[in-house]
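Why this split exists: single-chain examples teach little about how molecules sit against one another. For that reason, every record in the complexes split bundles all components of an assembly together and asks for one structure covering all of them. Below is a record exactly as it appears in the raw files.
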Amino acid sequence: MQELVLIQPVRAAEKEFAQEAAQAALRREFEERLAECGPLAYRVARGVLRNNADAEDVAQEALLRAYRRFERLRDRGRFRAWLVRITFRLAIDRVRSSKRREVRETLWSETSPRPSTEDLAATSEFQAHLDRAMEELPEKRRLVLLLGAIEGHSLDEVSEMLGLPVGTVKSRLFFARKQLAEKLRCHVKTIEKR
Amino acid sequence: MPCENYREALIEAAATDSAPSRELRSHLDACASCREAFREERQLFAAVDSGLRVTANAEVPASLLPRVRAELNQRHVPQPSWVPAGAAMAAVVALVAVIVFLRGFGRDTVPTNASVNLFAQHVSPAEIQPDPPVVAAIEATSLPAKNKTVWAAKTAPVVQAEEAAVLVPAGERQAMDALLAGVRQGQVKADILLAENSEKALADLQISPLAISPIAMKPLADVGAE
């Protein structure tokens, strides 16, 4: 007697092939955005974490997470804004959950390039103060400030990325810069006096 | 007006990098100390902006995108959620079909065309051609079935699935699995098999009409005598 098995040949094959084709198209579309937005994800993470290795890890995680959910993103034109939010959230979470933060900061200061002149020393010192001051900003203001500084984004672009009115972005940016200036005013004077 | 009253306006003008208002400008013209304070504020905000640009536009490591691509290739081949459930269901249906088939086969004492007899009560006469062997349940298939034995199973009670199902020799199942594996690995292009059906592909499956000899009608000889 001939052995027989039950199969559903056409539907199964068609579904499989159609799915393969859809996945390939999705991957191609994501690849285009990956090249365009990958650096942005890294810079957002770097702006929050102030550590290259951590920023790379977080950016990678954010991009992979974005890929996993890419199919569900209805408006693909919002990918950039979506990725920024994912990255920012992951970076903030990492900062909060990290129990080795102090160690990392020590490593960061050790791996920073040693200034060769007084000016460079002053710049590096100011940069360190700036980084700390940024960390104390409220998250909403910090994100606006970062995005405004990254790749020279305009107010309109930041507004579009965050889905906020331009007026709100402008206001947050103003108060964020003002808050930074308050904290750094004394340091600027100290550095200038040297 | 004392200098303190201009402090906020002075900071705001420096922060927004905008021109001072007329009132503030006239004060700055008259007050050297506020002029100096305004200059310092502008320097401060310029330093903040410059520092922010340095922080925010750090060089992106060249390893980032290759790392992400490698991860995408390894871990994140998306699998549809219905695949495991579908596979399990297909396995159960196949098992039940085989059991029912074997039971039915055991009861049937006629060895030839056993499967035809088994399914004959469920299959309409138009779908059955006794010789060559049974060809049925093909309306849903677009694959060429030349020189293959396809057993009628579409209307069997054990196959209640929404999709059309057929019983085929085990080797054919293996061939289908190999084909799907080839598609997954990119050795076979799915587009070929997703193409529209061609008439030629199904031409070999055409069933010749039944040849029925005319029946001679004769009146019964003894009807009139009775």
